[in-house]
Each structure stands twice: as structure tokens, then as C-alpha cells.
Write a structure and sequence with these properties.
Strands 1, 2, 3, 4, 5, 6, 7, 8 and 9 form a nine-stranded antiparallel β-sheet that branches. The protein has a two-stranded antiparallel sheet with strand order 10-11. The chain has a two-stranded antiparallel ribbon with strand order 12-13. It is built from eleven helices and 15 strands. Pfam families: NA37 (PF04245).
Length: 334
């Protein structure tokens, strides 16, 4: 992975309803040093976020200049500097619909991953803090916090231009600002192409169907291997590779699970972007009401924990030592 191009521009509306001003750089940053470190921190934060959405450029691409400008750059019809400067003008126009004040830096970067170019765009806010200077005086300073990605976009050029996927455009928005999210999605020309919850549900149903054909002791180990791999991929911000997972769960027949999955997928694909919340619900059973809260690993279900459907009762064996001590102590008091 290497940083090939990078530049930082500025955009600002100082007070609500005021004119938007842009501060456009006239040269690229060096692809090493502080900017490379900052970009990598933003890239990792973007990659690991569970809030990302996957999609593609919409059919009405004339509403966004990003696809055309990115294509021209990739085909060497324009420079990286020209592309980003023009996009800043387009961003300024898009933000006219948003009246709140803002003061942001926009990082544009081209990253090379395994000889495949990827365009990243990050909206960077400064955070105010207090420092003690060398004269032991308190003063306010602004700093960049790369752990908080306000907005981010990623375009995978190869998947887009070769039309091998409808998930080549990734967007990460702000949770608490739906109006600004809408403006930024319009700026990117983003159209959602993937329902992660639906895709995860289908994948987990396939995992369960595969487990049902195994002896109980093998199925337990298999589920554990699958979840360990999936959660590790999610933690790294990477999709589940069905072929890689198939090899990990059965090295004697490394394609068996992959073939089983492909036959049952609505839209057969090797890479699956999973929903973190749904994965965790598969690993653990949880529930609560006003007077009761309970959570346990799915590995315990059917063995140490049994659900009696006739009586709508949950039978728990081998309860945790600390809970047992509390129950015994309570009984003695009674």
C-alpha cells in the first residue's frame, strides 16, 4: 500500500447563512512525512468503522461531477490537482443547501493497494483543546483527531471502471447530522447498493444450514471457527472472503463450504460485508425487560442452557460461581 497523491483544501462558512469560502491549495503534498501519517490514521479509522455504507454512482451521474472528474484523472486526461480543485467548487455548490456554519479541511488522496488505485476523500474537523505553554500559561489550541471521521468516501477504480461490482463506492457519514449526510451523498453521487443486515442474515442462514449436516461436536467447533474469522475481519474493517473461510474451516476439503454457500446465495459473491450488530447477536443471546437482563454465549445453548418451549421456561445449569454465591446468600437471609 502506498500513497501516490495527496492534497488538502479548505472550506468554510463562518456563521449561519453566510457565503461559503474555499481555500484551494495550488500544489500537492509530499507523499511522505506528516501528511502520509495523518492519511493512514484516517484511512484506518474509515476502514474499521461499522457505519460504512456500500454502493455505486447513481444512474443520473450528471448530478455529481465526481464520476466524470475521477474518470478523467484515471485516464490521464486531467491532473490530480485539477480534479481536486474542480471538486472543491462542486462541493461549495452542494453545501449551499446546508445553512449551518462549518470550518473544514478536505483531504483528497490516491492510494495504491496491490496495483489498484483507490480515491479517498475525508472531511476533517479541528478539535479545540487546552495546553500549558513553556511559560506555564494556559492557552487554547486546535488539533486534528483522526479517530473521528466526520465524512469519508472511497472509490475503487478497477471495480468501478471494469463494472465487476456494484459496491465500489464506500461512504461514511455523520451519525447526528442527516441533513449534511444527504448533501455529501449528493456530492458523491452515491446510490446504496448493499443492505448489510440482509446480506449478513443470508450468510448466517447458510452457516447454520451447513452446520446442520454435521455431528453436534463438529458443528460447535465449526461455528466457533466461522465466528472467530468473521469477527476478526469485521474488527479489521475487511469483508468476509467465502473462499478463505471455506479453507479455514475445512482444509481437507477447502472448497466444500464455498460451493455450498454459492449454491444458496441470492447473488453469489466471494466477499460479504457483514453487519457488526447482527454478528454479535449470532454469537450471544441477549434479552431484557423491566426486571430481568440476561446474556449468554450461543455455545451454551442446548447444553448448559435449555429452552423449554412447552412451559416457556429457560433452564440454566452450571451457573456462574459469583451468581451462585449471591443466590445462596439471599436464600440464607430468607
Amino acid at each position: 500500500m502506498s500513497l501516490k497523491h495527496c492534497i488538502v483544501h479548505g472550506i468554510q462558512r463562518p456563521v449561519p447563512g453566510a457565503d461559503i469560502r474555499t481555500f484551494v491549495s495550488d500544489k500537492e503534498e509530499a507523499s511522505e512525512g506528516p501528511i502520509a501519517s495523518l492519511f493512514e490514521q484516517y484511512r484506518q479509522g474509515f476502514q474499521r468503522s461499522a457505519q460504512k455504507q456500500f454502493g455505486h454512482f447513481g444512474s443520473q451521474q450528471e448530478l455529481s461531477m465526481l464520476p466524470g472528474l475521477a474518470r478523467d484523472f484515471h485516464e490521464s486526461k486531467s491532473s490530480f490537482l485539477t480534479m481536486t480543485q474542480t471538486l472543491m467548487g462542486h462541493l461549495q455548490e452542494a453545501l449551499e443547501k446546508y445553512e449551518d456554519p462549518f470550518d473544514a479541511k478536505i483531504i483528497f488522496a490516491i492510494d495504491d493497494l496491490m496495483e489498484q488505485d483507490q480515491l479517498y476523500i475525508f472531511w476533517v474537523n479541528h478539535v479545540e483543546a487546552i495546553q500549558i505553554n513553556k511559560h506555564n500559561e494556559l492557552q487554547y489550541i486546535d488539533y486534528v483527531d483522526p479517530t473521528k471521521v466526520t465524512f469519508g468516501f472511497k472509490v475503487k477504480f478497477d471495480q468501478w471502471l471494469e463494472e465487476t461490482s456494484n459496491q465500489y463506492l464506500t461512504i461514511l457519514g455523520s451519525r447526528g447530522n442527516p441533513e449534511l449526510n444527504e448533501v455529501m451523498e449528493e456530492f458523491a453521487g452515491f446510490t446504496k447498493g448493499l443492505d448489510k443486515v440482509e446480506q449478513t442474515e443470508e450468510f448466517l442462514n447458510i452457516v447454520e444450514a451447513f452446520a446442520e449436516a454435521m455431528p453436534d461436536e463438529n458443528a460447535k467447533e465449526y461455528r466457533s471457527q466461522v465466528m472467530e474469522y468473521c469477527l476478526e475481519q469485521d474488527k479489521s474493517g475487511m469483508p468476509v472472503s467465502v473462499n478463505e473461510l471455506s479453507f479455514q474451516v475445512d482444509q481437507k476439503e477447502p472448497t466444500r463450504f464455498a460451493q455450498f454457500a454459492q449454491e444458496r446465495q441470492t447473488d453469489p459473491m466471494d466477499e460479504i460485508h457483514t453487519d457488526r450488530a447482527r454478528l454479535k447477536r449470532y454469537v450471544r443471546f441477549t434479552g431484557r425487560d423491566k426486571n430481568l437482563s440476561i446474556s449468554f454465549s450461543s455455545d451454551r445453548f442446548g447444553e448448559g442452557i435449555i429452552y423449554d418451549t412447552d412451559n416457556d421456561a429457560l433452564i440454566i445449569k452450571d451457573i456462574p460461581k459469583s451468581l451462585k454465591q449471591q443466590l445462596v446468600k439471599h436464600q440464607l437471609k430468607g
